[in-house]
């Protein structure tokens, strides 16, 4: 029997704490915790939360606070940011926040960093007060890394307490080549957002691997790739459930973001042919199907990307359907390990 490419691969969760139509933010947080507890049981390696702002359908804006909540309700799964949008914050504040998290939950905290605003320009201005559009991201990243170094290694007039001397894994996140190259040059792990930037996936991963220089952090490149997966007991059911996700992206390209909508039997009539083409292109890496179909497509995805780890987004309107999707995906990976 040939070995599956899934064997030995870590699999993780990306969560936006989505707020559904008719639902509340508190329900979103409760469901996020429920998923984290179950993901831990199903063998998921990490549970990351994404920073977005001014979006009524995404409740993970205070990302560090939510990471603490999830880490406090779980026992061993790694919890982190996918990601913190560093230009929105002072490097010192992030060092202190994640130093606090690592002190409370040692060996379980990841700091994934992005350079996009995670929002619109008006909100970015409200967050940042001045806009550099991420041009100074490398300098800000270096400043952050300095705060984590022991005080004996560098002379500091400003210190991160807590944070100083703590070994908190830093990841760079990206949907294009900028962070791929930077992660490679610094010898850091890299996470690519294939779930909404599929066309750039292979070029960015190749750039990361070509740019990679061994460091104290990594001797070899380590790439995690985000992918959206909708799994159900029947493919037809998975396709129906995925329509919520298509509606979400349709609202984004129309610049009318809102809460996560209930699934529909057909998207016909909801989008124009042009809008359909745009959504299909942006979501072309999405995997939808029953267990066998999802397994086959996950294998092809990992074969194509040579990902060391995959981070699964499975954002569904119905919480129990969503939990079942993550359970099926967990079964696929666990069965691959047992072969």
UniProtKB/TrEMBL annotation:
The keyword Oxidoreductase applies. It is an enzyme of class 1 (oxidoreductase). GO terms for molecular function: alkanal monooxygenase (FMN-linked) activity. Gene3D superfamilies: Luciferase-like domain. Its EC number is 1.14.14.3. Residues 23-304 form the Luciferase-like domain. It comes from the Bacteria. GO terms for cellular component: cytosol. Keywords: Monooxygenase, Oxidoreductase. Pfam families: Bac_luciferase. To bacterial alkanal monooxygenase alpha and beta chains. PANTHER family: LUCIFERASE-LIKE MONOOXYGENASE. This is Alkanal monooxygenase alpha chain. It comes from Bacillus safensis. The gene is luxA_3.
């Amino acid at each position: 029997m040939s070995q599956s490419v899934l064997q030995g691969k870590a699999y993780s969760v990306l969560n936006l704490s989505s707020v559904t139509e008719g639902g509340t933010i508190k329900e979103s947080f409760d469901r996020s915790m429920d998923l984290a507890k179950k993901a831990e049981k199903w063998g998921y390696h990490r549970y990351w939360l994404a920073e977005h702002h001014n979006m009524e359908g995404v409740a993970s804006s205070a990302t560090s606070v939510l990471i603490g909540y999830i880490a406090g309700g779980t026992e061993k799964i790694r919890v982190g940011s996918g990601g913190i949008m560093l230009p929105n914050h002072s490097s010192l504040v992030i060092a202190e926040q994640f130093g606090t998290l690592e002190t409370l939950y040692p060996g379980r905290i990841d700091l994934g960093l992005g350079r996009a605003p995670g929002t619109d320009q008006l909100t970015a201005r409200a967050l940042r007060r001045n806009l550099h559009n991420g041009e100074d991201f490398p300098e800000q990243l270096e400043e952050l890394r300095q705060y984590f170094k022991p005080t004996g290694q560098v002379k500091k007039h400003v210190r991160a307490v807590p944070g100083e001397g703590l070994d908190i894994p830093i990841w760079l996140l990206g949907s294009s080549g900028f962070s791929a190259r930077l992660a490679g040059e610094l010898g850091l792990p890299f996470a690519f957002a294939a779930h909404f930037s599929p066309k750039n996936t292979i070029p960015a991963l190749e750039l990361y691997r070509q740019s990679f220089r061994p460091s104290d952090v990594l001797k070899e490149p380590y790439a995690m790739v985000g992918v959206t997966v909708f799994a159900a007991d029947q493919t037809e059911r998975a396709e129906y459930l995925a329509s919520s996700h298509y509606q979400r992206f349709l609202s984004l390209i129309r610049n009318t973001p809102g809460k996560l909508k209930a699934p529909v039997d057909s998207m016909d009539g909801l989008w124009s042919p042009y809008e359909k083409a745009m959504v299909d292109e942006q979501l072309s890496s999405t995997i939808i199907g029953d267990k066998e179909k999802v397994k086959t497509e996950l294998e092809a995805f990992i074969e194509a990307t040579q990902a060391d780890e995959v981070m699964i987004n499975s954002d569904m309107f119905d919480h129990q359907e969503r939990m079942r999707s993550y359970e099926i995906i967990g079964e696929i990976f666990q069965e691959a390990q047992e072969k």
